Amino acid sequence: MNSTTRTSFMAIAVALGLNGAAGAAELRIAAGDTGDALVLLREHLDQFEQISGHSVSIVEMPSSTTDQLAQYRIWLADESPEVDVFFIDVIWSGLLAQHLHDLTEAAGDVIDQHIPEIVASQTVDGRLVAIPYYTDAPALYYRTDLLERHEKVPPETWAELEATAQEIMAAERAAGNTDLWGFVFQGGLYEGLTCNALEWVASNDGGSFIDAEGRITAANPNAASILDRVAGWVGSIAPPGVIGYREEESRVFWQTGNAVFMRNWPYAYALGNAEGSAVAGLFDVVPLPRGSMGTASAGTLGGWNAAVSAYSAEPEAATELALFLTSEAVQKDRAIRYTFLPTIASLYDDPEIAEAQPLIPAWREVVENAVPRPSAPTGIHYSQVSQEIWTAAHNTIAGRGDAAGNLAELERRLRFISARGWGS
Ligand code: GLC
């Protein structure tokens, strides 16, 4: 951490009124283990402990958001005081709102610094249920060395990606690079596949399964044609195991140097350039490709937010912690060292961030144009809806039925779930 950052940590301490003298609380925070996220979190918690006098332990969660949600729901249904602060995925605010503290007043002085759409996504019935921590919008990672060697440019359409991957794989394999594959993404049975599927379909002008008004649009020819195309990649340009991959499996595969392209979130950028990565300095990023029927690329809007459990025995200290972790100094440190996209708008113009991680200012536009999953229109039903979406996508890419049939079945199931409306 540099001296500017250290000074800003002290400034937050003053702003939050943290002086280490108030009654010390013992807090627990639940956080997913992705990349080096927990190592970095621990450093920030140590800072918080020093300036607040509270102590904080991490309750380690799996990296998959789907697995995290399952555990959160058990704790929250039990009204358990086990965890004081949760990081919640951008899509879970509606589902968990009733179990979370209203942070509107506590965050009153700082909330306007954050990108308004993200704040809106964490505001449920006028209550701010979580404070934005970082935002997410995916990138197409590509190997600069391989594209250059084979005189290719980064693809703008999925068809171009397929052709480039095929060509480079064939030439490299013929030259002895037999472990090389063309493309890795997230094909496992979980929320990440819903994100990938939304990107394929929306970028081919096939909608977002359910539109902003809650109308089901899943079964349509543009959605079907792109999903059938993706199914053709498994075992040809993508390793057969991709249908079980989540973010970390794709990243690890990529970092061994065995893929030409990867779809992943920005956290993989800093890690890919870190010591020990076989692709350090050998890759760059562009927005995801679009489908042949589409006019624009589509990146799913992701991101995480800090929430205080309604069942915490230490709500005030927990709120201080949520404010600390989402503060400008922490977001800046996370951006510089691990390419986590800030939710504080001014950080996209920060020269130190731009210098350390050029991806971040370049990604502002991708964040602004990111496509939301249908969590707002489907409310408390979203987790069921998403499960149906990833199941239909998975069946298709795993070769169980064609896309048209699987999307028709998806529509039938979504109609069943929404039979009495999404609100009930
Ligand atoms: C990332 C995103 C999150 C998304 C998840 C899917 O963590 O930030 O919004 O749900 O990936 O795997």
Radius of gyration: 22 Å
Q: What would you call the structural class?
A: alpha/beta
**Side-by-side strand order of the widest sheet:** 2-1-3-11-6
Q: List the bound ligands.
A: alpha-D-glucopyranose
**Tally of separate helices:** 18
Query: What fold name stands as the CATH topology of the largest domain?
Result: D-Maltodextrin-Binding Protein, domain 2
List SSEs in N-to-C order: HEHEHEHHEEEEHHEHHHEHEEHHHHHHH
Strand content: 5-15%
Note poorly predicted spans.
none
Largest sheet features: 5 strands, mixed
Give the CATH superfamily of the largest domain. Answer: Periplasmic binding protein-like II
Tally of domains:
2
How helical, in percent, are the residues? 40-55%
Give a verbal description of the structure.
The chain is of the alpha/beta class. It has two domains: 3-129 and 302-368, Periplasmic binding protein-like II (D-Maltodextrin-Binding Protein, domain 2, 3-Layer(aba) Sandwich); 138-299 and 373-424, Periplasmic binding protein-like II (D-Maltodextrin-Binding Protein, domain 2, 3-Layer(aba) Sandwich). Helices cover 44% and strands 13% of the residues. It has 18 helices and eleven strands. The chain has helices spanning 3-15, 37-52, 65-77, 93-96, 116-121, 144-149, 158-174, 191-202, 221-233, 247-255, 267-272, 315-325, 328-338, 351-356, 359-368, 375-378, 382-397, 403-417, and strands spanning 26-32, 55-61, 85-89, 123-124, 127-128, 131-136, 139-143, 181-184, 259-264, 283-286, 302-308. The strands form three sheets. A five-stranded mixed sheet has the order 2-1-3-11-6. Strands 8-9-7-10 form a four-stranded mixed sheet, sandwiched between helices. Strand 1 (26-32), helix 2 and strand 2 (55-61) form a beta-alpha-beta unit. Helix 8 crosses helix 9 (221-233). The longest helix is centred in the middle third of the chain and has 17 residues, at 158-174. The termini are far apart. The model has no long low-confidence stretch (mean pLDDT 95).
